[in-house]
TrEMBL record:
<comment type="similarity">
    <text>Belongs to the glycosyl hydrolase 9 (cellulase E) family.</text>
</comment>
<keyword id="KW-0136">Cellulose degradation</keyword>
<feature type="region of interest" description="Disordered">
    <location>
        <begin position="453"/>
        <end position="473"/>
    </location>
</feature>
<feature type="active site">
    <location>
        <position position="413"/>
    </location>
</feature>
<feature type="compositionally biased region" description="Basic and acidic residues">
    <location>
        <begin position="463"/>
        <end position="472"/>
    </location>
</feature>
<dbReference type="InterPro" id="IPR012341">
    <property type="entry name" value="6hp_glycosidase-like_sf"/>
</dbReference>
<keyword id="KW-0732">Signal</keyword>
<keyword id="KW-0378">Hydrolase</keyword>
<dbReference type="InterPro" id="IPR008928">
    <property type="entry name" value="6-hairpin_glycosidase_sf"/>
</dbReference>
<keyword id="KW-0326">Glycosidase</keyword>
<dbReference type="InterPro" id="IPR018221">
    <property type="entry name" value="Glyco_hydro_9_His_AS"/>
</dbReference>
<keyword id="KW-0624">Polysaccharide degradation</keyword>
<dbReference type="Pfam" id="PF00759">
    <property type="entry name" value="Glyco_hydro_9"/>
</dbReference>
<dbReference type="InterPro" id="IPR001701">
    <property type="entry name" value="Glyco_hydro_9"/>
</dbReference>
<feature type="domain" description="Glycoside hydrolase family 9">
    <location>
        <begin position="30"/>
        <end position="485"/>
    </location>
</feature>
<protein>
    <recommendedName>
        <fullName>Endoglucanase</fullName>
        <ecNumber>3.2.1.4</ecNumber>
    </recommendedName>
</protein>
<dbReference type="GO" id="GO:0008810">
    <property type="term" value="F:cellulase activity"/>
</dbReference>
């Protein structure tokens, strides 16, 4: 009886603790935000655009990508405001879009078909990268160092479209395992709507994951300045250290897609060490642990319980004022992790909060952070507050999603958006000529609808300055996890 009274009291205290911190003032139009967050990916497309392209100021680009290596590497996405195709963040983007549909597709309504289109655009390219040349995984197109010295439309780019790859001789188990995760996750998305395509994706995922496990090493050790400091693998593979995040992440997705116990054995061999309080394109520990925890919390698979413990340790590090909290919050209530593109961490962490809460709800599961009882409601409330902040409930009273609401960033750090479109300016704009638009104080002429920028600083301040890429640059990996969080909120609160 005493234990029951304690749990009841802890639950009541937990409710008042979290509800006081996460007082909600209203619900933004989540349906509109969801549609726009998916539409954004059309603005990042590389390759030949389809007839139903909705962001019409974009045109075909990168039509000869891969030709310098005598392969076809057209398609895929530009990662952010530049014209390079980096497979590491592109694969993470594809994984998170897929996970969003897997968890919340039934809440998306008609947007689920558009989300699948966005996933297929990335997955088609990753299939080419993984299967075109046996023993080789292509991991990028475009010389980032020369690209970043230019400010030109993707339709005009004339910088080298260098092709980068990893192989047995020059391994990259980090980017390979992330690619495997993307292909496996996408296979689950298409399993019921396009079985043949899903089988192709899963076969490629198996192949690339085998490569990642067999030939281990950090891809940036080989490719150097071709990927660093842009997407250097900081928390990726480390020799002789168990628990490498991409290997854990990739094997987790292969286990989810195949139920093959060989992947389970591999996961257990990696262990569940290395506590973290972040989740991003470069650090997958928390994501893998939440994904694996589904088997424990929802299905009762006890052999994976160490990953559940680690997932909940992560949550305790995120929640405010818990004994182990290591997360900074702005005065306006925003999770603040890094000065560079902070909203990428906000959207990714919010997705994990919502998704773990979903698993908890299915089995009435709770856990403790010290003596504080944590419920699914507490996690959902924090995730909702983060999304609401992005959509305008913040001290600046502005949306950080372009095209959403009445006040949003006008001068984003994005070449195609900031330069006149081909429709309005048919003449080529050269590498250096474009910097007059980069330096201009005028709003961007083309609206990149749905783009979420890097976001405000630790003081909730945002200057809307194109030249401050750390705050004003959008990226595919900022939007991808937000799609899932918005779909959850649409299902819970409507539009």
């Amino acid at each position: 009886m005493a234990s029951i009274k304690f749990l009841f009291l802890a639950s009541v205290l937990s409710f008042f603790f979290f509800s006081s911190f996460y007082h909600v003032h209203g619900h933004p139009n989540y349906g509109d935000a969801l549609a726009k967050s998916i539409l954004f990916f059309q603005g990042q497309r590389s390759g030949k655009l389809p007839p139903d392209q909705k962001i019409t100021w974009r045109s075909n680009s990168g039509l000869t990508d891969g030709s310098v290596a005598n392969v076809d590497l057209t398609g895929g996405y530009y990662d952010a405001g530049d014209n390079v195709k980096f497979n590491f963040p592109m694969a993470f983007t594809t994984t998170m879009l897929s996970w969003s549909v897997i968890e919340y597709g039934k809440r998306m309504g008609k947007q689920v078909d558009r989300a699948r289109v966005a996933i297929r655009w990335g997955a088609d390219y990753l299939l080419k990268a993984a299967t075109t040349t046996p023993g080789t995984l292509y991991v990028g197109v475009g010389d980032p160092n020369t690209d970043h010295k230019c400010w030109e439309r993707p339709e005009d780019m004339d910088t080298p479209r260098t092709v980068y790859a990893v192989s047995a001789a020059h391994p990259g188990s980090d980017v390979a395992a992330e690619t495997a995760a993307a292909l496996a996750a996408a296979s689950l998305v298409f399993r019921t709507v396009d079985k043949a395509y899903a089988k192709r994706l899963l076969a490629a995922a198996r192949l690339v994951m085998d490569f990642a496990m067999k030939y281990q090493g950090k891809y940036s050790d080989f490719l150097g300045s071709s990927v660093c400091p842009f997407y250097c693998s900081y928390s990726g593979y480390k020799f002789f250290v168990a628990g490498q995040d991409e290997l854990l992440w990739g094997a987790s997705w292969l286990y989810r897609a195949t139920n093959n116990n060989a992947y389970l054995s591999y996961l257990q061999s990696l262990g569940a060490n290395d506590d973290t309080d972040i989740f991003s394109w470069d650090n997958k520990y928390a994501g893998a642990r939440v994904l694996l925890s589904r088997r424990v919390v929802v299905e009762g698979v006890k052999s994976l319980d160490p990953f559940r413990v680690q997932a909940e340790t992560f949550m305790c590090k995120i929640l405010p004022n818990t004994p182990s909290s290591s997360t900074q919050y702005t005065a306006g209530g925003l999770i603040y992790k890094m000065s560079q593109a902070n909203l990428q961490y906000v959207t990714s962490i919010s997705f994990l909060l919502s998704t773990y809460a979903k698993y908890m709800t299915s089995s009435n599961h709770t856990f403790n952070c010290g003596n504080l009882l944590v419920t699914s409601r507490a996690l959902r409330s924090l995730a909702k507050k983060q999304v609401d902040y992005i959509l305008g409930e913040n001290p600046q009273k502005m949306s950080y999603m372009v095209g959403y609401g009445t006040r949003y960033p006008q001068r984003i750090h994005h070449r195609g958006s900031s330069l006149p479109s081909l429709a309005s300016h048919r003449q080529r704009i050269g590498c250096q000529e474009g910097f007059q638009y980069y330096s201009s104080s005028n709003p961007n002429p083309n609206v990149l609808t749905g783009a979420v920028v890097g976001g405000p600083d630790q003081y909730d301040s945002y200057s809307d300055d194109r030249t401050d890429h750390s705050k004003s640059e959008p990226a595919t990996y900022i939007n991808a996890p937000l799609v899932g969080s918005l779909a959850y909120l649409v299902g819970s609160y409507g539009s």
